[in-house]
Design a protein that fits this description.
By secondary structure, the protein is α+β, with helices and mostly antiparallel strands. The chain has one domain: Glutaredoxin (3-Layer(aba) Sandwich). It is 35% helix and 21% strand. It has a four-stranded mixed sheet with strand order 2-1-3-4. The radius of gyration is 14 Å and the shape is globular. The mean pLDDT is 87.
Length: 111
């Protein structure tokens, strides 16, 4: 399995805040050792490797993870906690996963 983390640089040249948060979590937890490659999606350059990957997989948010399985299947994760649970097989709190999903989709709300 190969795991690629795609993080974004915004159009003004500043780093994506959410990407920094996720990178910090990966480093603090030791999970960064499971990441094989980190690629930059630079909004100022539509031909940057991360922007090309985002277009290829129709991903419109960052950070995201590209997981290439040994059987050739590719899975995309845009939610850090789901990635940790499904790919790294580590325990997560459902409330954290739901909060991240809501943060990424402000048009959604709990009923």
């Amino acid at each position: 399995m190969k795991i690629t983390l795609v993080k974004k640089i915004l159009a003004d040249g500043s780093p994506c805040k959410k990407c920094g948060d996720v990178l910090g979590r990966l480093e603090d937890s030791g999970q960064m050792a499971s990441i094989d490659e980190v690629i930059i999606a630079d909004e100022r350059d539509p031909t940057s490797p991360g922007m090309l990957l985002a277009a290829e997989y129709s991903v419109d948010r960052a950070p995201f993870f590209v997981v290439e399985n040994d059987d050739g299947k590719v899975d995309i994760y845009t939610v850090y906690f789901k990635f940790v649970k499904d790919v790294l097989e580590q325990k997560t709190e459902e409330k954290d996963e739901m909060k991240e999903i809501l943060d990424q989709n402000p048009d959604l709300d709990f009923l």
